[in-house]
Specification:
Number of helices: 8
Mean pLDDT: 93
Helix content: 25-40%
Shape: globular
Strand content: 25-35%
Radius of gyration: 20 Å
Distance between the termini: 40 Å
Structural class: alpha/beta
Number of strands: 17
C-alpha cells in the first residue's frame, strides 16, 4: 500500500521499503546501462507522469517448488506453474527509458489520464535507464532494460521472502492433467485459449521460457504456467497495443477461463502462438493452432490478439480455420479507433 526508501529492503505493515543503493548496484552490473541510472517511487494519487515506460513487472519470487521467476531470462529454463510464489501484490517495477521514438508508454498517477491504465493504482518502483553508449544497438539496449526490470522485481520479492515476510492472502490454484480433466468433467464443452503474441521483430517481441516466440511453433501450456510467469514481454510497440509482463501473469482471459473450469466449461489449456510477418508463417501457425485444438478435442476456442494491422490477418485466419473445422471461435480483437 505504500513505498519508501530505507536501509534494508523489506516489507512491514503494508509498506515496501527499498534500499536504493543496493537496487542501483544490482542494475549497474550490466555494462550496457550507463552511469545515469536512477530509481524513483510513484504512488497512486500523486501528481506524477511517468514517461517513457517500457515494461511493467510485478515483484515475485518462488519460495517453494520447481522453477524460479522469469524462467529462461533470470533463472534456469525449468518449467514453472507449481510450488509457492511470493507476490508483492499492489507493487510494480516500471522500466523507463527512450527506446524507439513515439512507441512508448505514459502513466499518469492522478488526473483524467489515470483512468486509462491499471498502473496508476499500483505502487511503482521506477527504473530510470539510459544506455552507456547513445549509439548502442537498440536490440541490445532493449534486452538490457528488459532484464533490469525483471532483476529488480525478483530482488524486491526475494528480499521480502528472505526477511520472513508472511503472506497476508494465499490463493491456491490447481489444474489437472489433460487425461484427468477429460474424465473429471464429462459433458462440459471443451474450450481452449489461442494466445496470439507480438512476434513481429523490430522490438515487437514476446518470450516464452526465454525463447523469442517468433522462433518457435505453437505449443500447449497449463494456465498455471502462464500465471506463474512463463511468458514475458519484450515489446516496444505503441503502448495501447502491447501487453506488459504484468499483463501476461494477470491475463484476464486465462483467469476467466480458469474460474469457470469444471463449472460450465472444461478449460483445455493455453496455446501460445506467434503473429508472423510473412504469409508462410501465418499459414503455418494458424494451421498448427487448429491441429492442436483438434487433438485436444476442443469444442470452442477463445482467440485473443496483441497489436493490430499485420496481426489482424493472423486473427482472421485463426477464426476462419476453427469455424470451417466446426470449432466455435470467439475473437478478442485490438480496439482500433481508426484515423
Amino acid at each position: 500500500k505504500h513505498l519508501k526508501f530505507g536501509e534494508k529492503t523489506g516489507f512491514a505493515d503494508g509498506t515496501l521499503t527499498v534500499n536504493k543503493k543496493e537496487l542501483l548496484d544490482l542494475i549497474a552490473e550490466d555494462p550496457l546501462l550507463g552511469k545515469k541510472l536512477d530509481v524513483d517511487l510513484a504512488m497512486p494519487g500523486e501528481s506524477v507522469r511517468i514517461i517513457p515506460v517500457k515494461d511493467v513487472v510485478e515483484p515475485r519470487w518462488k519460495i517453494e517448488g520447481k522453477g524460479q521467476v522469469f524462467p529462461g531470462m533470470l533463472s534456469d529454463v525449468e518449467t514453472v506453474g507449481e510450488g509457492k510464489t511470493l507476490v508483492l501484490t499492489g507493487a510494480a517495477v516500471l522500466t523507463a527509458g527512450k527506446l524507439v521514438r513515439f512507441q512508448e508508454g505514459i502513466i499518469d498517477m492522478s488526473g483524467p489520464g489515470a483512468e486509462y491504465t491499471p498502473y496508476s493504482q499500483t505502487c511503482n518502483v521506477v527504473l530510470v535507464l539510459e544506455p552507456s553508449d547513445p549509439n548502442m544497438d537498440k536490440h541490445d539496449y532493449e534486452k538490457a532494460c528488459r532484464v533490469a526490470g525483471q532483476k529488480a522485481a525478483a530482488y524486491l520479492a526475494r528480499c521480502c521472502a528472505e526477511a520472513g515476510a508472511k503472506a497476508e492472502k494465499v490463493d491456491v490454484h490447481e489444474f489437472a492433467s489433460f487425461r484427468d480433466a477429460m474424465a473429471a468433467h464429462p459433458g462440459l464443452p471443451k474450450v481452449g485459449y489461442i494466445y496470439m503474441l507480438q512476434t513481429q521483430g523490430l522490438l515487437h517481441d514476446t518470450y516464452l521460457y526465454g525463447v523469442d516466440v517468433k522462433k518457435i511453433l505453437p505449443t500447449v501450456l497449463s494456465p498455471l504456467e502462464v500465471m506463474d510467469g512463463a511468458i514475458t514481454s519484450g515489446n516496444c510497440v505503441s503502448a495501447c497495443d502491447k501487453n506488459t509482463t504484468w499483463h501476461h501473469v494477470h491475463n484476464p482471459s486465462v483467469a476467466a477461463l480458469y474460474a469457470r473450469h469444471g463449472k460450465d466449461l472444461n478449460f483445455l489449456g493455453v496455446i501460445p502462438t506467434q503473429e508472423s510477418t510473412v504469409l508462410m508463417g501465418k499459414v503455418r501457425a494458424s494451421q498448427m493452432n487448429l491441429s492442436i485444438a483438434q487433438e485436444l478435442g476442443a469444442d470452442g476456442v477463445i482467440v485473443s490478439e496483441e497489436g493490430y494491422g499485420n496481426p489482424d490477418t493472423d486473427l482472421c485466419m485463426n477464426a476462419r480455420n476453427f469455424e470451417r473445422a466446426g470449432i466455435k471461435s470467439v475473437v478478442v480483437s485490438d480496439e482500433a479507433a481508426g484515423t
